[in-house]
Write the structure tokens for this entry.
Amino acid sequence: MTRPPPGGGVVVVGSVNLDTTFEVTRLPAGGETVLASSVRTAVGGKGANQAAASALQGVPTALIAGIGDDAAGRTLLDTLAASGVDVGGCRVVAGAPSGQAFITVDATGANTIVVAAGANARLTADDVGTLDARVVLTQLEIADGPVRAALAQARAAGAFTILNPAPARPLDAAILTLCDLLVPNEHEAAALTGCADAREAAAALGATAGGASVIVTCGEGGALGWRAGEWFELPPFPVDAVDTVAAGDAYCGVLAAAIAEGRPLEEAARRASAAGALATTARGALSSLPTRADVEALLTRSGLTPSGPDPSA
């Protein structure tokens, strides 16, 4: 399979889930039952969220994923297509249910997430095929095989490679050396390196990955970047957060889109930070992802003049 996005923009290789979200006053402790005030279902999964976030920036974006051959799978594909994502590279897996995520969100916006992989676990390296894109982005809600294949095929094609190592798990260093950019959050960076300090973790990840750039996202603390031994810091955008679900995915998708437009890494990361902040101001995953206009409005309100190409021009 060859999966070029129109215009050679972004290809995302990752997961698609049906999210079921329970809103509670507070997250339950171990063994405790709490009552939810509401429940809702929607499209989610890191691959789907990140692809939609990129597409909403006006950048051509394709998704490669495994989809269940159930009613949920058909809904997932239709919803992603309606968000502007090219889903031609998604494989409907016979006999497999669609992936599902069960999310609990408390009154402060904090959350816990449990994922059942379903068809996502059936995605293989063969499904990745040959890639033609400016940027290829992948995560760890799928197996190592398609992750490695995505990064290797991207490298062979001369694309910029991004790995969001979430959820964190031990990785072969050979996978990391295929990355141009790693984007963990502070907890994932610590889990991958054993370094509690974000700066130490970023430097350790960059060294293990053979000099790849690293951006560690720190929620309300902003983000920290490591590039060729030099640091840059990105302050947070103050917002009234109601739900942190998909904030990291908004960050990664918009980062990939901005890099595909040819923006310098620090500028791309600033746009990504704005997107991640905006995603916390609305409930849900796909429904919380900001448009290009949303991102540029926040940059303007913050005194940061948007710049760079407009793909709609």
In short: The longest strand covers residues 17-23. Residues 10-301 form a domain with the UDP-N-acetylmuramoyl-L-alanine:D-glutamate ligase fold (CATH 3.40.1190.20). The chain has one domain: 10-301.
